[in-house]
């Protein structure tokens, strides 16, 4: 395993190391949970202070026309740059679950595809809940969920054959939440199109972690949250991408006033917008959208290709250390070894994973507190966020995992699990 001095040299050579100073960091703390909630950019408090004290506090209602109405469109343009989409193909607002419900319902009602839903056991639970709810609401809709023999990666042949046998609307997480498995997006988009089907991609664990090009990958529908690798803040609004060919073919099942063609005429009759704005619902969440803009600005400045290159380098650094130091201590790797099929977090498994996480978080004399992420039943997820994760952080993690397990220090912590870890 590379020693601490060598890890620090890698940090000095890192072309993105200056971005770490653009975030708040807890003293004596190493944060490896950016795949759940990204850190706070330092300029967000100042930006929000201006929105709260000046735009809201002084300008009041005037700020709608002077600042706020154009904010969602401005953020959409920036996400369009990141994902290679036209600005009018992306809208912001609502949560990922609401966006998923809207677009799946609209596709089902459009009758463009068979009313059969497909997903798999690697998908995020809330997506599966939405699919199940739609089947209950729409009696003619059916659902097939593939269960694989393991949770590390998908069986692509099994998935393809189901799509061929039962075409319809497929919902998948591009990067899976447990193992960070990354689907071959273009290959599956083409397969779906060839078999009268369409894939709705959930990018929550992918955007800001892997490069995504909607045009090159022939993606038609995608959505995702903005509070993980995009550092938009807790509960920050989700985005919805819909290829322009579908804008006038799909109807929003939630007819809110911001989806109206002329919302400020207050016509009692609903007329949907002629563009993707028809999928807007209520008033935009201005405060949280302001924080989202700070996050996307940092990603665009750093460059997604540079971020991905560092992510892969750090992942390989970590995996090599796990192989050398931790596998003999009853750890197992639960992420794909091939970086082309992996996002930006690494999952390892251990029978005492929960207690080990508590020992990491507790820290000790001369030892930083290390915050990873636990997922049942026995997974420790290690989020690598290249904007602020250091090689030194990963060295400390492996060093402490080795000591905690070798000394059985985890036995000092009970196995009572909390709701958030």
Describe the structure.
The protein has 421 residues and is α/β, with parallel strands linked by helices. It has 2 domains: 4-41 and 304-412, Aspartate Aminotransferase, domain 1, CATH 3.90.1150.10; 45-301, Aspartate Aminotransferase, domain 2 (3-Layer(aba) Sandwich). Helices cover 37% and strands 12% of the residues. The protein is built from 12 helices and 13 strands. The chain has helices spanning 4-13, 44-56, 62-68, 71-83, 96-110, 125-137, 156-165, 185-194, 286-302, 304-326, 353-362, 391-406, and strands at 29-31, 90-92, 116-120, 142-146, 169-173, 198-202, 221-224, 239-242, 332-333, 345-349, 369-371, 373-375, 379-383. A 7-stranded mixed sheet has the order 2-8-7-6-5-3-4, with helices on both faces. The protein has a 4-stranded antiparallel sheet with strand order 9-10-13-12, covered by helices on one side. Helix 6 links the parallel strand 3 (116-120) and strand 4. It is globular, with a radius of gyration of 22 Å. The mean pLDDT is 96.
